[in-house]
Specification:
Blueprint (H helix, E strand, L loop, with lengths): L5 E9 L2 E5 L5 E6 L12 E6 L4 E7 L5 E2 L4 E2 L3 E7 L7 H13 L3 E7 L7 H12 L4 E3 L8 H8 L3 E5 L6 H9 L7 H7 L11 E3 L5 E3 L25 H4 L16 H7 L5 H18 L3
Parallel strand pairs: 3-5, 8-9, 8-11, 9-10, 11-13
Antiparallel strand pairs: 1-2, 1-4, 2-3, 4-5, 6-7, 12-13
This protein binds guanosine-5'-diphosphate and zinc ion.
Guanosine-5'-diphosphate binds next to helix 4 and helix 5.
């Protein structure tokens, strides 16, 4: 009798075993067949041979789409950039920086404004008005009051999503809520149990269903500008394109040039001033880095 192999997704590894979700929602405890050449990561798509009692043998790793370093996870496709309505107020500087890093990493950004049960400040209104027009999806949710969560779940459908954003915005709360768990300590609890920053953590994917996952460890905590040529930067600000058509110079950096469509659009209020200023400070960083090559 031949046993056919099945495809699955590695949710976590623990003590030499890999926990592989099959194409349904079953989780199979797999040991590797012999020594695998590559280190298996959470997020890896693998072939395994099922045995009895939800056990199996991991046979091979399928090619990865990508591999993230912090956290160490494969095949992430989406980044949930989380900010709060309040406590803490959103930072547009951080938001624009994260949007750049996410796009540069070839991942899909999804802006999540959590704590929509709190008062609406000017910055929040700006995000809600501007970013969807610039082409970025924005979801207003409240993990605490269970608002907007279904829409967010739909946005994650078919994706392996990693959370990003400053501390206190509700990343752990959202993860708990999305995965229907009460396992991940939120800030208050983790301070109480004193889980230190140096505790070894195995990255784990939490399945929302058999087609959507959220990674339990936030990413994009390192915010250094990636190395690129200065001409590349404007391309990562998609809403600038339309206005750049009227720039006098084809390779306009929208910086010191005269007759610049982008600068005009900023003056006309069609491009958010903070967005343009954040662009300029990133441009300066890129130019600074160019000198170090
Ligand atoms: P993290 O640091 O981003 O993981 O944030 P946490 O999930 O630890 O949440 C930080 C604080 O915000 C906690 O006190 C949560 O109870 C609170 N919080 C989370 N979601 C909401 C929400 O939707 N509304 C309000 N008002 N508070 C929330
Ligand atoms: Zn220009």
């Amino acid at each position: 009798m031949t046993i056919t192999q099945e495809q699955g997704l590695v949710l976590k590894s623990y003590r030499g075993f890999y926990y592989v979700q099959d194409n349904h929602t079953r989780i199979i405890e797999c040991r590797p067949r012999g020594k695998l050449k590559t280190r298996v990561l959470s997020g890896d798509r693998v072939m395994f041979t099922p045995l009895e009692d939800d056990k199996g043998v991991l046979e091979s790793i399928l090619p990865r789409n990508n591999e993230m370093v912090r956290p160490r996870v494969a095949n992430v496709s989406m980044v949930l950039i989380v900010m709060a309505y309040d406590r803490p107020l959103p930072s547009l500087t951080l938001l624009d920086r994260l949007l750049l890093l996410v796009q540069y990493s070839q991942l899909q950004p999804c802006i999540v404004l959590n704590k929509c049960d709190l008062p609406v400040h000017q910055t929040v209104t700006e995000i809600l008005d501007y970013y969807p027009r610039a082409g970025y999806p924005v979801h207003s949710v409240s993990a605490r009051c269970n608002q907007g969560m279904e829409d967010l779940q739909q946005a994650i459908h078919g994706e392996i999503a990693v959370l990003a954003g400053p501390s206190g915005v509700g990343k752990s709360s959202l993860l708990n809520h999305l995965a229907g768990l009460d396992l991940v300590p939120t800030q208050e609890v983790s301070q109480k149990i004193g889980r230190g920053r140096h505790t070894t953590r195995h990255v784990e994917l939490y399945p929302l269903d058999n087609q959507s996952w959220v990674v339990d460890t936030p990413g994009f905590s390192v915010l250094d500008m990636p190395r690129m040529r200065r001409e590349e930067l404007p391309g990562w600000f998609p809403e600038f394109n339309r206005f750049a058509e009227t720039c006098k110079f084809a390779n306009c950096l929208h910086f010191k040039e005269k007759e610049c469509g982008v600068k005009n659009a900023v003056e006309q209020g069609e491009i958010l001033t903070s967005r343009y200023n954040n662009y300029l400070s990133m441009l300066e960083e890129v130019m600074e880095n160019e000198r170090c090559y």
